[in-house]
What does this fold into?
Amino acid sequence: MRAKAGQSVSEGLGPQEIDRLHVFAEITDQTLMALVARIERSSTAEHLIYRECELDEAWRLLDSAVREVRSQGGAGAAEALETLDALRPIVIKAHDLVGIDGDVKSAASELRQGVLLARKWVNLQKR
Amino acid sequence: MLSREDNELLVRVGPGTPMGDMIRRYWVPALLSSELPERDGTPVRIRLFGEDLVAFRDSSGAIGLLEEKCPHRCASLALGVNHKNGLRCLYHGWKFAVDGRCIERPTEPGGANSGHNIRAVAYSTHEAGGVVWAYLGPAELKPEFPDLEWLGMKEGHSVPFKLQEDCNYAQCVEGTIDTAHAGVLHREQPWDAPAKYDHEKDLAPKLEVQFTAYGMRYAGLRKIGDGQQHVRITQVLLPFGTMIPPPGKDAPPIIQERRLVNYFVPRDDESTWHIQWFYDTTRPINVEHRMEEGGIWLQDDFRKKVNIDVWYNQDREWMKTGMMSGIKGIVTQDHAVCETQGRILDRTKEHLGTSDMAVVAWRRMMLKAARALQEKGEAPPGTQGGISWNAITSETVKLPEENSWKADIPGVHVA
It folds into this structure.
């Protein structure tokens, strides 16, 4: 999902999308945008729990990626680690904004800042 | 994942801590009635929420729960004489009633009548379901006692058990609201052998949560073919009670309708009283079967005989041929995984999966309630009265896949 300029990424998301846990297997700009969209639409206490779990999953995937890059090393590892290290605090902050403060607006805004980094990470993996 | 601050807030329950203040607003199970079997009998030392207390049953049958140290010179009142409606300190004979009033000071001028202004710290108690419950919060804010489903049953249909778990209470709670672990840790087959039960076949149930005025309920949903879903609804009663659904019609008859309740009462920050009831409206509980099934072999102080010091007697051969865990008894299996997380789990280091959603939800409720009390003075959920406690129950049902459990099995006090 990719929003056009001035458009919320959450447009078009049905209530059922919000009221369930979304499963994803990798960190990409697309998954982060989709997560931003669900965060923006979340309003109930249950929604916030689902979003926090999704952000837990995002953090777990990032942590796994860091370990893998560290163990494999090689050319480009430094740049990859730098990218992932920049992305991790963004996900953690978004997680805490959802979990502790229930502040979906700030959480979505925070996570948007990670989208370009996630795209860079995707491109680095293609090299 | 929790931040370090949130983890500390969750696990510390001593006097004056935000979480400690919050959980003290509830009635909690403290000890078995059978520990105080007779009037004027032996007092019992009990640690609760990091406080050392002494419980005694007086001449009238009333139960006192006092700070263990005598207010005079701080000797243990558990050494004292329990006689004629009071507990008398062995050191100088000061005597205390169940409400903490000092009713005699024989070594002081005036003797019997000289103690009117002295009080031992005393907490309210209430006996129900074979257990002595306690309220450790401010007396003026004491909530109504909850008339829970399993507390008023026919003799033998609801039976309490108690044992000590050697880790922080939050780990214990999280272990019982984690439906996914049942098909792994309690698997009655080696890992590579065909699964025996539905919950062993589908190891990744879909979870859904619903918050309520007393806590929450959540469902583990598993597709079982023919357009049907297997639904297990667990209730969570704040702060640390869990109501586990019965195994259902596919289980052996002796346990089909048997429900389980767990309370994980902090003994201190690093150990927990695991108090559980089994109850069944259709038949009496078979206590011997349960002790064997659970692996509940205890010392006199309620610590497990099969514990971390003997590595839970894990049998590597049995893991290849029989029980995946190699550990005898469901309770011992549960305690093994929780206790080996460490006395206090560092949640900044964990990596949660989607199956941990109920765990996340419970933590958030606890943290929110503690903060709301600390910052705004808001009473914790379920402590303001008006809850139909008796209507709260756990369920195992089969529903058409397209149906919503929230609609088909409506809860009470849904937020």
In short: DSSP finds ten helices and 18 strands in chain B. The CA atoms of residues 294 and 329 of chain B lie 4 Å apart. The mean pLDDT of chain B is 94.
